[in-house]
Amino acid sequence: TGCKVVAKVAQRTSEEQRKRVRFVCIDTDVNDLRKLREANPMIKTIQTSAPYSVGEYLNNNTFARDTWFPTHHILNGKTPTEGAGQVRAISRLAFDTCISEGAMKPLEKCIEELYPLNGEAVQQALRIIVVSSLAGGTGSGIILPAAVYIKSYLEKRLRRSASVMRGFLLLPDIFFDGKSPEEINNLGANGYAALRELDAFMRRGDSVGEGSDRFRRMTLKM
Length: 222
Description:
Structural class: mainly alpha
Helix content: 40-55%
Number of strands: 4
Number of helices: 10
Mean pLDDT: 83
Strand content: 5-15%
Strand order of the largest sheet: 1-2
Largest sheet: 2 strands, parallel
Shape: globular
């Protein structure tokens, strides 16, 4: 859903506007990304999934296996190249591996293109818009890790601390039409969990700070 929104925005921009903006779409589903690239050459894409089963991901990522992933024998055989299947943890697991294997280069290149190394002073802070639904597994599972990754890249690689990040997040109820009670429950659970994480993260300096600091440290270990 987030990719569809970004594609519609990209299609409405002029050539002049595209000199000052970059579009990047991240998804686990290889088929959706292929269609997106074919229809929108101005958009860079990142496939966060690889042809590994969840069990193979966990064998390579012992930190995830031992600390946060909800290991289950049914999940272990799933391969996320066609989506995360409503399981947020699978998307996060695939995203961790995507980072460790250097697959975030298209995103990094887009950021660097907005900071040409020509000696000119930067007049405006970079504005980052993260677009996703909170209903499925893929988007709601990586909005926080992706945001932290971008912020960390700006600060550590480009020495840019000035940036403004906003999220446009679609709530699960817009997907309820035609869904069974069980499907509605799953969509709502994903949205609730994602919002709880966002809330905890934004409050990390107050009474829930200890829990969100653990989440932050966990995310930065990617």
